[in-house]
Amino acid sequence: MKKIEAIIRLSRFEKIRAALAEIGIRFFTMHEVKGYGLQKGETLTYRGSIYDADYIPRMQLDILCTEDNYQKIIEVIVQAGKTGEVGDGKIISFDINQVTRIRTSETGEAAL
What we know:
22% of the residues lie in helices and 37% in strands. By secondary structure, it is α+β, with helices and mostly antiparallel strands.
């Protein structure tokens, strides 16, 4: 089993969600996150005053999957999330030893 963490642009979230649904991935956890990288921060304007924000707002998706569909999920996220500009995001993957569904006590792939 694998865990995929994808840090993506907020503007690409709906496109990525729809693309994942097309391949049967309808469950994941998401978090609004802030980061700092090559793209630097954004300039925000509020009531005529300009503020420099030292962070970039992003969305993080956490997806648990089997070895069978792991590579396909990564390909779909890359395809749907790519703009070709700096700041498109990152995908990180981890091996998972154990997953347990709390409601039924199922473990392993059955818990996914």
